[in-house]
Amino acid sequence: MHTWHWQSWDGAPFLTCDLLADWPHGFFTHQFWPQTPETLIDALQPSATVHRVKQVHGNTVLTPAEMPQTLEKSPAATAVATQPPNSQLESPPESLPQRPPADGIVTDAPIQSAWVCSADCNPVLIANCQTRQVAAIHAGWRGTALKIIPVAVQRLLQHGSQIQDLRVAIGPAIAGEVYQVSTHVAAEVGQTVVAAGQFTNPDDLLQYLRNLDNPPVLNDTQPGRARLDVRRINVLQLKQLGFIDAQIAIAPHCTYQEPGRFFSYRRTQEKKVQWSGIVSQ
Hints:
alpha+beta, 21% helix, 6-stranded mixed sheet, 8 helices
């Protein structure tokens, strides 16, 4: 069982995990709104460059070398970063180059920080204990249905990682017991953790998932609806790749049920986010 710790910076709390203790990292709370990574990097490693993308709920994962618009931390960038984002997934001001559409970043050099924002979706931070490379992934149900975390892991493997050297921390997100979705969505996400063609009937698939230990799908009282634990699906996808429990940590916090700490788009429909970031070494 991995432990999570509350840290403080500039008078506000952010969360860290012992699994990633060797890398500067943080899952930030809504108290930091509307600060963005160009400012928040000072809480982790001020000398690191900042890398982020325009999140689109897909499965594209990029390296900084593939992001020519990436900005290094500078007084000008920090000044712009204090302006509130224009959408839930944080659109940059018109004066800055357009960030590429993607939902994951894998670093390709030391002292690079990778960032994602979320407001119910899963912020996922990955680190390699040998190469010191890191990744940040935004994994909502759509990205999870497209296997964005396995895509990110594959990119790490292409850079020389081995599965046994990777450590994964899944940050605060909406918990399965309160995340109501259609049974169609639950089946679309759930089919990523069973063999292709194993179930031709979505109802049979959902019943199979409900019967698993620590099930990723729970019953809902409304017809045609289910409760979906996206974090649990992420874990099952990782285990299919060869990860073991000791390599994975899940934050014991729900964005929907903890309004004092986190924004939740499902709860309030506000277009606000919290940031999560990690620094390569």
